[in-house]
Amino acid sequence: MAAAQDAQDAPVAEEGASEGDEIIVTGIRETIQTSIETKRRETAIVDALSSDDIGDLPALSVGQAIQTITGATTHREKGDASEIAIRGLGPFLSNATFNGRDASNGSGDRAVNFNQFPSELINNIKIYKTQQANLVEGGVAGTIELETLRPLDFNRTRIQAELKGNYNPYGERIGTDDPFGYRATLSYVDQFETGLGRIGISLGAQRNETSNPEETLAASTTWVACDATQTVTGNCPEVDRGEDTPFYLAPNAITFRQIVEHDRRDALFGAIQWQPSDTLDINIDAQYSNRDFSEERHDLNLSEGRYSISNRVINEEGRFLESYSGVSSLESTSTLLERGEEYLGGGIDIAWEATDRLTLSADASYSGTKRVEIERSTRLRSDPLDIYGNRTPLNNQRVPYTYTIENGYAPTITFDPRFDITNHDLFSDDARIRRDQTQRENEIWAGRFDVNYQLDGGFLSQIDAGARYTKLTYEDFDDRVEITQNDRNVDRDVNLACRTVFPQRDFLSDAPGNSISSWATFDPICLFRGYLGTEDPGGNEDVRDPANRDVEENTWAGYVMASYDSTLGDMPVRGNFGVRVVNTHVTSRGLRADLEVDVDPDTGAITLEPVDDSFVGVTIENETTRFLPSINAIFELDRNLLLRLAGYRAMSRPAPSSLGAGRTIRLDDGEAFTTIEEAIDGIDANGSPRLEPLMSWNADAALEYYPNPDTILSGTVYYKKFTGGFIPVRIDEDFVIGGETVTIPVTQTRNSDDQSRIYGFELTLANRFTWLPAPFDGLGGKVSYNYADSDFETQDIDLGDVVDLDTGEVTQGLIPPANISGYSKHVLSAQAYYDAGPVSLQGIFNYRSGYYQDFVGGNNQLRYVRDNETFDLRATYQVNRNISLRAEALNIFNEPKITDMPVKGSIRQYHYYGSKYFLSVRVRI
């Protein structure tokens, strides 16, 4: 083929010659060449990252690999790439598959957990930017396909082992942490000729152990609009929607958090491919992973973020506080969070060539994830008395402080110097011991049957048709055991026994303006033993709760698609057209219960608890049917110049956790109420079972130029018209509280009738400078850019517009809406590489402009992630045919992740993770 011929004309890395002077292209150049060729031969508009060999994707993780693909970018968690956005549109608008199947996760959304799959065992990633009917179900933004190799297709024996060590400089700051970790990967691929036909096997295993220290400042996830006309002596009075009253935005709490994390992941992959004859292909594959994760957190918490706010300087545009004075109780909270997540997936795929023209195929699969998270935390609070019963210098539970932002994101918080936050004696009262357990289970059973019929001559070249059935279930529950105690003698003994030295030096030293470097910390497990006599008191026997979710989604889908291959004059034209029909039936089960009012005899504080024998089941069902036509056309303007046109209708489903039928009793960040009226205001819907898929009509046009196997210049313009947005609605519901029936307006999210659109363009340029003299002919690069413009609106659940379903009346919100979740106007990826002989060097720059990111589960307030950029380096040296060395550095400039809430500019949180460095050796036999 042309790619192989041109490859021989340029100096490239040599793995060995199989015939005479034949040269095998390897390294980054081979990956880019293969990706260009994949894009060229696909019918839809596709961008890809693929390699003919395993373990050659130039990235540490699947998420990092994907963000080098044109128009794709990621959301960062723990300093690594996680959820993927296509064309600047969030994971909610994309569909992701693993070996052609939906994959479950433990987060409650539909995004594939890319960190769950080792990149060393994946050799093909495709992103379909446009849809075609045989995808059965795509997404508004696109479809991400991850594929592991089929052993018979690989067609050679390969034993490969890689050991990768990592170093995290932030770990050096932590006295109890090990800054080093490792990842070990072993894989084996082989083929056998037997009396039963050809059999291929592939096996892979990986263990990854690392620590990811993190430091952050964060405000609470709930913000209120405070009346700016009043002097505040307690909690600020709130302004409601529709009121024409000056206001400012304030969080319920502010927290400094230091984190020590330990993370171990084990993964196993396997496949058996059997071809008993030339017409029958059977492939069985399975994947298993298990992750054990723990975080030891040490928090300094200002638990009363909107108490006695004075000296206010309010940003006129965003209505948030740029500086102010306040008073708050201070808390030292010690937490051990442990999470276990287990994934099991796999299936069987059978393809049979019934005749020379007819191929039948079937696939059955299962994907299941179970995540169990147990969090044990103990809070110790400031008080007028220290642990010995002596009056403190302040003689008050609440500590004065000042807050100011002068550098854009890192607030300077200064406490009254009479309160020494490093003095363990001063955290002496109101001990609260909590055990929270969260369990999420997501299972997907699926089956598919496809028919392919090749036609002989004429305009149409083949017909494809098929059907699919999928059953998705999602269940979760949260269980809390909470104990408080007021015996000062016990407080003193436990305080003295469980003190720790602040576990980190240089805390948030990289954040400009930060004034807090340490505070009094305690051992969380020691506190549990001291207060309860046990490290873990266990959960409640009865975990029923109105907030539990139980969702079942049954989907039937069918499609028919015709492919064509013809000419228009002398110009070759090919493509496909078809339609898919998707029927979805959602059944969401929840619980309702009477609520009893508990009054603390010492403080008079009120809490609400379900009455045990009053639980009643509630079932809400919703069904939708959607028709999704599509057409793709490729015009070969010249041998190396293609024009692609596409039109299609697409859908994106809400997350399973967003379809819950439960109700959440919000206790104002865990604090008790002082009046029943305040308690009544704290009941929210934790899901919207009648939330329907987001639909869009789409049009794309792309011009692609392929002058040689190393080079591509392409540009795509696209337009998407949405037929509905999201808006909070208010529904009156009856609750029995303290024996009395009370009607409460409950707010949840529904589809609106709004019309909105997105238009944009993306550009890709990849080239290797083979025309330069040696050794500079090994230089190459790739640049991709995506621009999108959207007028979509997402309203804040508490402070945005709201619709009364009974009257249809819209109450004007207090803050502007966000765009669609995950939407970034600008996405840029730039790579430069040098690939010659045994040396391969690569630098990768990624930029993503700010975006709104919804919380998993929906029905939350608006959260914005600010612009972020990262720069990574990679270097590989091929020692010989069998051994290679690789060095990698991530986020070398220690770029933080910064979020705002509930308006842009109003800082909610910033994270620092530090840089990460890796060194590995790989052996191939």
TrEMBL record:
Its Gene Ontology cellular component terms are: cell outer membrane
Does this entry carry the keyword Protein biosynthesis? no
Quote the Pfam families the UniProt record gives: Plug
Q: List the subcellular locations.
A: Cell outer membrane
Record InterPro entries: Beta-barrel_TonB_sf, Plug_dom, Plug_dom_sf, TonB_rcpt_bac
Its keywords, alphabetically, are: Cell outer membrane, Membrane, Receptor
- Is the keyword Membrane assigned to this protein? yes
Check the record and name the PANTHER family matching this protein: PLUG DOMAIN-CONTAINING PROTEIN, TONB-DEPENDENT RECEPTOR-LIKE BETA-BARREL DOMAIN-CONTAINING PROTEIN
Q: What is this protein called?
A: TonB-dependent receptor
Its lineage opens with:
Bacteria, Pseudomonadati, Pseudomonadota, Alphaproteobacteria, Sphingomonadales
